[in-house]
């Protein structure tokens, strides 16, 4: 069997022969057991060679008489196959990226939980229900601790004879120092106020500041009382007194009411 006949076997297997050459080869195939055997061995790899077109086969036939052309053809075929594989890998990677971006977590959920016998477990999160909102304390709110209750600590009532401001303090000794809750009334506004701790050694500490609106607190215009809380690191035993002060625009403070723990 000549080399040309062998090339005809490959070309016939790939279906690239024209009608005339196909008929001629089939006539030859009927009487040539060698070509028939060669054709049989090529059947399993026809799918692998199906991407080689007629031009490539023609080039391969020409290389039988030109070794240099054979080398160039082989290089070109190898490069073409590398480019084809590279494009296939890029296409596959792009598809994965696009699909993953569209499906997000759902993709991983499908791949992980679609196995037989695997059941998705309910997630544990925040309890359902209406959203929780908060609001600042209002002077009209119930007394500290709710109706019928009062904060812990020593209760002290005081009304300043000059300003008329009324104060109720609850002073509690704590491991961290002293906690204090206080209620103010007959406090006119507008003004800025602060609560000052005066120690027995005559040093002072500002532990709370707030603004009073125009209507004030516990007044005829605004009857609601002001309820606040504060804390200091100073032990109760070292406190001389608490003083509510009014501070003007220049930062000058004047006393409104003074409360002395027992």
From TrEMBL:
Species this chain originates from: Micromonospora endolithica
Origin superkingdom: Bacteria
Protein name: RNA polymerase subunit sigma
Region annotated Disordered, chain positions: 113-156
Species classification: Bacteria, Bacillati, Actinomycetota, Actinomycetes, Micromonosporales
Keyword Transcription regulation included in the entry's annotation: yes
UniProt keyword annotations, A-Z: Membrane, Transcription, Transcription regulation, Transmembrane, Transmembrane helix
InterPro entries associated with the record: Anti_sigma_zinc_sf
UniProt cross-references to Gene3D superfamilies, sorted A to Z: Anti-sigma factor, zinc-finger domain
Residue intervals passing through the bilayer: 90-110
């Amino acid at each position: 069997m000549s080399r040309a006949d062998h090339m005809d076997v490959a070309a016939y297997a790939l279906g690239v022969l024209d009608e005339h050459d196909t008929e001629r080869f089939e006539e030859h195939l009927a009487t040539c057991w060698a070509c028939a055997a060669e054709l049989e061995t090529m059947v399993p790899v026809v799918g692998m060679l199906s991407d080689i077109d007629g031009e490539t086969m023609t080039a391969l036939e020409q290389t039988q008489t030109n070794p240099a052309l054979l080398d160039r053809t082989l290089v070109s075929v190898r490069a073409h196959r590398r480019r084809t594989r590279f494009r296939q890998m890029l296409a596959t990677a792009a598809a994965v990226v696009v699909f993953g971006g569209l499906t997000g977590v759902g993709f991983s959920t499908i791949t992980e939980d679609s196995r037989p016998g695997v059941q998705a477990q309910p997630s544990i999160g925040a309890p359902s229900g209406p959203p929780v909102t908060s609001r600042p304390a209002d002077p009209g709110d119930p007394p500290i601790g709710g109706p019928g209750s009062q904060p812990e600590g020593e209760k002290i009532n005081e009304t300043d004879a000059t300003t008329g401001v009324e104060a109720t303090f609850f002073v509690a000794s704590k491991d961290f120092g002293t906690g204090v809750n206080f209620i103010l009334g007959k406090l006119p506004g507008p003004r800025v106020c602060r609560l000052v701790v005066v120690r027995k050694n005559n040093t002072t500490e500002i532990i709370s500041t707030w603004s009073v609106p125009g209507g004030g607190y516990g007044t005829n215009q605004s009857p609601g009382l002001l309820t606040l809380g504060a804390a200091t690191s100073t032990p109760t035993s070292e406190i001389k007194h608490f003083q509510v002060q009014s501070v003007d625009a220049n930062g000058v403070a004047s006393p409104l009411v003074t409360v002395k723990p027992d």
